[in-house]
User: Fold this.
Amino acid sequence: MMLKAGLTDQRIKVFDKNFGRSIGFDRCLGLATEHLRLDASDLGVLRTIDSLRDDEQHWLGDMSEELLFLHARATVGVLDKVMQTAFDERLADHLPPRALPITSQPLEDFDVLIDRQYKQINDLLQTGKRRRAEARSLIRSMLAMEGHAAEDVKVSERDVNRVEKGMKEGKSLTEVFPRLTTVAADIQTEGPTVTVHFTKKKGAPVHFVPADDPAESAAVREVDLQKKFHWTATELAKKLDLTNPRATALRRHLSIDDQPDCVHRFHFGGLEVIRYSDNAFTLMRQALDDPATDMDAIWAGHGFGRGSGRKT
Assistant:
């Protein structure tokens, strides 16, 4: 609702006339990337919270208190960012003067917390424990946290079954949850203030398999690439208020077309169609927002010809 309020304030439509209801969460995140200046870290937090909520609503969700605190505090930070971007206000201006959320536990690295929960699940799955339901609820929360590293994460029973099978076969955390090895949490404290910012790091290579592949035990899933890579080059240029040639020069300057997370080439028969992801849009927008960026210099170095094209 906070995202939709911010979008509405900027005169962005959040009501889908075709379906007769407001837009869904995924579409809302896409618009927030464009208009509310949310970055990949912010989107990861919101995707994870959404998946955790779905688990709690439809199944049985569980996670450690330390991980719950990190995600609750990170969410407060994202909402505060939306308030500043959309309304030029701080979230603290509308909350009671008390620390929220709080924790009595010392803050630890995300890697340590994930490893600890993984070991806890392994222990619960041991023969004779009869605590399989509790273990599966913890597995769901770990699958939900993959939202920090991937788009379109939807936790299914097939995924839970695959993870459980992999863990019973003695596979490591890196093998079963390769995406989580790419996530880190930057925790900053100053007096009573705690700021949590999730970031990506280089981890184990991730590959995608069909959701019903019985041969694979890792928690990786097939994603809709056309949904992830939905921008055409022209649409990117228009959204960034650039001409097509100057947008191309900026992409070359940032090496956008060399980054797998930013571009994908679809092949339909003999036709090749190039599409870009929200990651490409975010990188290009951040570059344009940087005062040090000189589009004239970029055009001179990467454009189709010196002095040609219109300025933005």
Summary: The mean pLDDT is 79. Residues 37-223 form one domain.
